[in-house]
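tool=predict chain=A
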Amino acid sequence: MTLASFTRAYERFMECVAVLLLTVLALIVIIGVIFRYSGHPLPWYDEVASVALAWLTYYGTGLAALKRSHISIPSLVNALPTPLRLAAALFAEACVFVFLGLLTWYGWHVLGLIAGQTLVTVDIPVTITQSAVPIGTGLFILAELLVLPRVIRETLRERAPKPAPALARGVKADGVKG
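tool=predict ok
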């Protein structure tokens, strides 16, 4: 199996997870609204919906990383000369790996500290609900590793954007001298 085929399979898996979590969250919200509207609000609705949203957020970040859809400033990096551009891109990726590594490590550590606790309204262990942090960040790290070769290729290929000739000579975009 090549890296590209593994990345595509991982992306499909992450899309399925995201769709499943989004569907579960939507169903929880719909059920909660129906019961609240009928005058019989569910006591567990708010807590479980919050957990489902957190899971969707943490697991969805792995998919966003695969698609390079998370927050970045590529124009800043692309404006640099090639050697600096590569160094800046690698530094940014290293910062992401360090942050996510710490988040994963401490996420697992926190799971040990909260062992034995359950949610307030439902008898679900908090370790299950909070496992989204280390697992989601671990999935994000895997996604970053999978796209790193592409990031390097694209960083080396990109050129600093040049201003439009008319704008460079003091002519506004509508053709009027400024």
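Residues 160-164 have pLDDT under 50 and may be disordered. Residues 3-37 form the longest helix (35 residues).
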